[in-house]
Amino acid sequence: MKVCIIGNGGREHALAWKLHHSPSVTDVYVVPGNAGMRTVATIVKLDWTERRTLLAWLLEQEIDLVVIGPELPLVEGLSDAIRSVGIPVFGPSQQASRLEGSKSFAKELMRRYKVPTAEYVVCQDVDTGKRIIHQWGVPIVLKKDGLSGGKGVTICETFTEAEQVLEEIFSSSEQCVVIEEYMQGKELSFLSFVDGTHVLPMLGARDHKRLLDRDAGPNTGGMGAYAPVPELNDTLEQDIVETIVKPIVKAMAKEGHPYVGCLYTGLMLTDKGPKVVEFNARFGDPETQVLLPLLHSDLGLIMYATATGRLEGMALEWSPQYASCVILASEGYPYQPLIGRNITGDIYTMDSVSMVFHSGTSYKEERFVTQGGRVLGVVGLGDTLEESLDNTYARVRTIGFEGQQYRADIGASSIGFCIHAKYRKNSID
Ligand code: AMP
Ligand code: GLY
């Protein structure tokens, strides 16, 4: 089977690497990919926004399956265009992608189908917004309605901050703001393969969205992750599948927009049970970088079955190990990343202990340089979470670029002790 992946980040590198090792897959192509993927895929220098050219190329190459990585092409309807020429696609239609593309659509669907989530109001003007903020009190959560790369959410601790953020959002081009009740608890990323009807859940993963250690600083696209998550036992998994994932999949089918692809359910494990924080219409980044190294099943077969409505009766096989990922980000990320810096160290070797997935890198004059906000995802495996973290941070210490930022506390809250000092770059073991 010939598979083409759309995208150029760390998630797509992990997908390409796993598909390259899938027995059912003969060729992996990435459009447009990045330089780090050369060892596992053929890089195709096409622009996915040039639809005619892309469709002609997919047909000419006789591609059997297209996997769409990021949210933007999904929300812009690329999967519909590719399906219309008869090629199976792993990724939801434009209509179904609204689960991620419009927070107000997702919230209203959850309300109608009684899926547990935070209380909310979609508000169209500043005055109403201020009134709600004062009625509900702080902390309170303000969200931009559309896509914003994980950076459109602010948790406001004071009334002054909340009013300021509200005014800022309306003074940009936003038409509305979603105001949400603040939920307390631990977060869980719960990803499932969905073929329109059937749901095949993956292991639980946990992302670390804030920029700095101890969950300080602004929200980012994700600074690190680990899997599996110890809190996700069979009972909780069944609860999530029965009360959240299946009802949403049924709802989408009933509304005439069956969901096909990876459904990412972001959850808060509150003392009243799991509640939805958000849906994403795709694999998570960096969750994918920790989930796929643990997957024993043939990813190509599963993705093809998902894309063609044949998941029924399929099961996933997982390694009993743990995986953790630390993101190395550029100076200035998430606001104004400074790029073009030389990267030193081994950013190629992929073995059973550690691996590196490229996000924002490019290859110039025979060396790798930084090219984006999130630059590399360093992954380590181990029989315990701590062993996997030791392997991840040992590898992190071998890689460098000027202004590099990374968190030294990935997984710390699950292990139950503070590991900051141990995992800082220049600490002595
Ligand atoms: P989202 O883009 O909706 O996933 O939000 C980004 C992050 O903001 C989430 O992963 C949470 O850490 C946090 N967040 C979003 N909504 C809430 C909420 N209602 N209560 C508490 N934290 C939230
Ligand atoms: N890791 C969060 C996301 O992919 O949106």
Class of the largest domain in CATH? Alpha Beta
* Shape estimate: globular
* Quaternary: single chain
Q: Main beta sheet, described?
A: 8 strands, antiparallel
The number of distinct helices, counting runs of at least 4 residues, comes to 14
- Rg computed from alpha carbons, rounded to a whole number of angstroms: 21 Å
CATH architecture descriptor name of the largest domain: 2-Layer Sandwich
Count of individual domains: 4
Report the structural category.
Answer: alpha+beta
Helix fraction bin: 25-40%
Overall mean pLDDT stands at 94
Name the ligand types.
adenosine monophosphate, glycine
Strand content: 25-35%
CATH superfamily of the largest domain, by name, is ATP-grasp fold, B domain
> How many extended strands?
21
Protein architecture, described:
This protein has helices spanning 10-20, 51-60, 71-75, 78-84, 98-101, 103-112, 126-136, 159-171, 234-254, 287-291, 299-307, 385-396, 412-415, 420-423, and strands at residues 2-7, 27-32, 42-43, 65-68, 89-90, 120-123, 140-144, 153-156, 177-181, 186-195, 199-207, 210-212, 216-219, 224-227, 260-270, 273-280, 322-329, 354-358, 361-364, 367-370, 374-382. The chain has 429 residues and is α+β, with helices and mostly antiparallel strands. The protein has four domains: 2-93, Rossmann fold; 119-181, ATP-grasp fold, A domain (Dna Ligase, domain 1, 2-Layer Sandwich), CATH 3.30.1490; 186-307, ATP-grasp fold, B domain (D-amino Acid Aminotransferase, Chain A, domain 1, 2-Layer Sandwich), CATH 3.30.470.20; 322-422, Glycinamide Ribonucleotide Synthetase, Chain A, domain 4, CATH 3.90.600.10. It has an eight-stranded antiparallel β-sheet with strand order 16-15-10-11-14-17-21-18. Strands 3-2-1-4-5 form a five-stranded parallel β-sheet, sandwiched between helices. A hairpin with a 3-residue loop joins strand 12 and strand 13 (216-219). The longest helix has 21 residues, at 234-254. The radius of gyration is 21 Å and the shape is globular. The mean pLDDT is 94. The protein binds adenosine monophosphate (AMP) and glycine. Glycine binds at residues 150, 207, 222, 280, 284-285, 287. Adenosine monophosphate is lined by residues 118, 141, 143, 150, 153, 155, 180-183, 187, 209, 219, 266, 277-278.
